[in-house]
């Protein structure tokens, strides 16, 4: 087998990745122990479908969790071999249930809630991207999430009613998950399955991300066995990520007081204001330019030349 490489969104808050789909794939690969070289990507534009994750195994390029699971199964890597027919069917049904009931709430909390988007989601994804892509992709992902919510709940005119409905459905889903897990270590016995990777990828970002509007996050944290489930998988499979985050966090806290004191005593406050205004003007100009440039990029993304680019790359390999 050729060396497997995986491009993902970077991690934050002790998470191996900030992204739901990336975390699914990464967790599953941790479960099965397949050797993989992980890259934290900062530009999804040239990914085959314009999004992450992307797994490459020789000339094989895979861009979804389902594709990755099927491909690794063909190589005799699988966490689901211990599932009987009934359990496999149950896992499939639960996966669909999560997609219908928890995924809309997840997207709402991350992308549609304006306070969460402004203070957490957008800065986090912008930090992971290089300029000028950080002006484009967060807004693009937010628009996609809003379109999905509008398609599902278009009959509601009040966003507060939409939020209430979405979170109520998600809370019922989480209770069902909690009841199914019970006191077990995993959902189907004492060994992890692909379904455990999916559930972890949904719940871990909700537990870890410091959302200002934390309705959904607080509900997850309030369910003891689901919180233990997240902590257990994180500790067993991503302990190095958590330890590094805690180390960096402790370092920031120890130096924070000194930095704040130095900032408060900075001698030239007028210069600070001028620099801030200049930076804001540059950022606004860059944003305006990026809007026009990315319209051209999006047109190119669907063109024959864009497709030929990847066909030629595969031929060269």
TrEMBL record:
TM region positions: none
Chain ranges of the Metaxin glutathione S-transferase domain: 170-233
Domain of life: Eukaryota
Keywords associated with the record: Membrane, Mitochondrion, Mitochondrion outer membrane, Protein transport, Transport
Domain Mitochondrial outer membrane transport complex Sam37/metaxin N-terminal: residue ranges: 22-142
GO biological process, one term: protein transport
Composition-biased stretches (Polar residues): 247-258
Gene Ontology CC terms: SAM complex
Gene3D superfamilies attached to this UniProt entry: 1.20.1050.10
InterPro entries: Glutathione-S-Trfase_C_sf, Glutathione_S-Trfase, Metaxin_GST, Mito_Protein_Transport_Metaxin, Sam37/metaxin_N
Compartment(s) of residence: Mitochondrion outer membrane
Primary localization: mitochondrion
Region of interest called Disordered, as start-end residue ranges on this chain: 245-266
Similarity section: Belongs to the metaxin family.
Name of protein: Metaxin-1
Species the sequence originates in: Parnassius mnemosyne
């Amino acid at each position: 087998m050729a060396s497997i490489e995986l491009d993902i969104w970077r991690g934050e808050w002790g998470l191996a990745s900030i992204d739901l789909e990336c975390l699914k794939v990464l967790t599953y690969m941790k479960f099965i122990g397949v050797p993989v070289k992980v890259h934290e990507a900062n530009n999804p534009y040239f990914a085959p479908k314009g999004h992450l994750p992307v797994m490459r195994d020789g000339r094989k390029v895979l861009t979804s969790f389902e594709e990755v699971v099927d491909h690794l199964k063909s190589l005799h890597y699988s966490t689901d071999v211990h599932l009987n027919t009934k359990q496999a069917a149950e896992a499939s049904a639960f996966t669909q249930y999560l997609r219908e009931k928890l995924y809309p709430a997840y997207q709402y909390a991350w992308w549609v809630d304006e306070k969460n988007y402004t203070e957490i989601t957008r800065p986090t994804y912008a930090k992971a991207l290089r300029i000028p892509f950080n002006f484009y992709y967060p807004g693009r992902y937010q628009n996609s999430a809003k379109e999905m919510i509008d398609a599902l709940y278009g009959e509601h005119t009040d966003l507060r009613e939409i939020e209430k409905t979405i979170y109520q459905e998600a809370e019922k889903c989480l209770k069902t998950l909690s009841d199914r897990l019970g006191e077990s270590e995993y959902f189907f016995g004492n060994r992890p399955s692909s379904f455990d990777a999916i559930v972890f990828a949904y719940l871990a970002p909700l537990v870890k991300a410091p959302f200002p509007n934390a309705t959904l996050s607080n509900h997850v944290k309030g369910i003891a066995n689901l919180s233990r489930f997240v902590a257990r998988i994180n500790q067993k499979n991503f302990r190095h990520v958590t330890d590094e985050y805690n180390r960096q966090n402790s370092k920031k806290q120890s130096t924070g007081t000194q930095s704040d004191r130095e900032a408060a005593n900075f001698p030239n406050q007028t210069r600070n204001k001028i620099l801030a205004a200049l930076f804001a003007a540059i950022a606004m100009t860059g944003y305006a330019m990026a809007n026009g440039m990315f319209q051209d990029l999006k047109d190119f993304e669907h063109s024959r030349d864009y497709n030929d680019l990847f066909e030629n790359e595969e031929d060269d390999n």
